[in-house]
Amino acid sequence: MNKDFLMELLDTSSPSGLEKEVQLVWMNYMKEFSHKVESDNVGNAYAVLNPEAEFKIMIAAHGDEIGFMVKNIDSNGFIFLEKLGGISPKIAVGMKIKFLGEKEIVGIVGANAEHHGGVKEKLTINDIYVDCGFKNKEEAINFLNIGDMAVYKRSAELLQNNMIAGKALDNKTGSFIIAEVMKNLSSKKLDIGVYAVNTSCEETNQGGAYFAASKIKPNLSIACDVTFATDYPGVDTKDHGEYSLGGGPVLAKGSQINININKSLEESASELGIKLQYELTPRRTGTDADTIKFTGKGVPVALVSLPLRYMHSPVETASFTDMEDEINLLTHFILNLKPNFNMNPIEG
Ligand SMILES: [Zn+2]
Q: Hey, which residues does 68 pair with through a beta bridge?
């Protein structure tokens, strides 16, 4: 497992709809482990093994991250924001923000001093603003345009017990996992085509996955994302279930999911001695899996997620042990996947 590659992905910005920077990094890494690497008109990046094979599996991870957009600049040069995906304004207070307009520029989200009443109890996105140090609006517009995108400026930290914390682990860990799976598979003989897709726009409209699956027309697909760990103070596990870091990859169960794929994933896990956790997605999964399923003539899907603490914060935390388990699980599943794999849940 090349942890440095995950660090590089985490350090590379990819606000939803502006994934170019991360896709170039991802595609460059994948060249060595794929027969074909390409991109498309909605910002997806593809890496393919055995592009001639008729039977195809698509493994998808979204490469975009949540962020901000410039909504307004006031006469004093303070910048007001719009949310790009599920970002929490409360958590943004006191953080550094990197704007990715024509000229990259850094600012901070101001925090009202305790002496002046402190930070408001309830914050909306309209209550926060970014201070780049500009004197006025005239100066600011030399650097920024309305609609420019921004992300937190923050490096990942390694924690004890093989854990990592930082921004955008949702879902750079997924981009990393599918890359490492391809790396493992690239030295093996395969009977099938494997399409790894680092999708765009999941955090905002899941549009990337739609284009990717429509283009590939896979026989089956596995989406790789993150899900809510509940092993930290203040979470009611009675309501939200018990999901722990180090507890293993999480398989989704519910009506969107093809049970034959899940069964085969479970067999792989038991052969490898990998622990699994289960999450319930009775209706929809809220991930690229939903979109992929409804493309073309329909695609049987499964969803494998990495447990993650502090979702959508700049300190999202995950375990390398779970990542390693997920990489091994998917590698083993794909190596054992034959073109006659029956996904029909009535027959299978
Ligand atoms: Zn995600």
A: 83, 150
| Residue 273, token pair as written in the block | 């001695």
Give yes or no for residue 117 having a pLDDT over 90. Answer: no
**Cβ 136 vs Cβ 87: under 8 Å:** no
Burial of 8 (0-12, 13-18, 19+ CB in 10 A): middle
By the 8 A CB rule, do 130 and 54 touch? no
- DSSP per residue, 105-162: EEEEE----GGGT-S-SS--GGG-EEE---SSHHHHTTT--TT-EEEE----EEETTT
The residue from 19, 65, 180, 202 that is catalytic is 202
Expressed in angstroms and rounded, the spacing between residue 225 Cα and the centre of ligand 1 is 5
Task: Please classify residue 266 by burial: count the beta carbons closer than 10 Å to its beta carbon, then call 0-12 exposed, 13-18 middle and 19+ buried.
Answer: middle
- Give 299-324 pLDDT, tens digit per residue: 999 999 999 999 999 999 999 999 99
Q: Which CATH class is domain 3-65+167-335?
A: alpha beta
Superfamily of domain 67-152 in CATH is: Peptidase M42, domain 2 (2.40.30.40)
Is the CB of residue 83 less than 8 Å from the CB of residue 150? no
CA of 226 to the centre of ligand 1 (A): 6
Provide the pairing of β-strand 193-199 with 56-62: parallel
202 is known as an active-site residue: yes
SS3 244: coil
Q: Amino acid identity, residue 206? A: Q
Q: Is the pLDDT of residue 348 over 80?
A: no
What pLDDT score does 143 carry?
Answer: 95
Q: Where in the chain is the domain with CATH 2.40.30.40?
A: 67-152
Q: Give me ligand 1 centre to Cα 32, in Å.
A: 26
- Per the CB < 8 A criterion, the answer to whether 252 and 261 are in contact is no
- Radius of gyration (C-alpha) of the chain in whole angstroms: 21
Give start-end residues of each CATH 3.40.630.10 domain in the chain. 3-65+167-335
Is the model's pLDDT at 90 over the cut of 80? yes
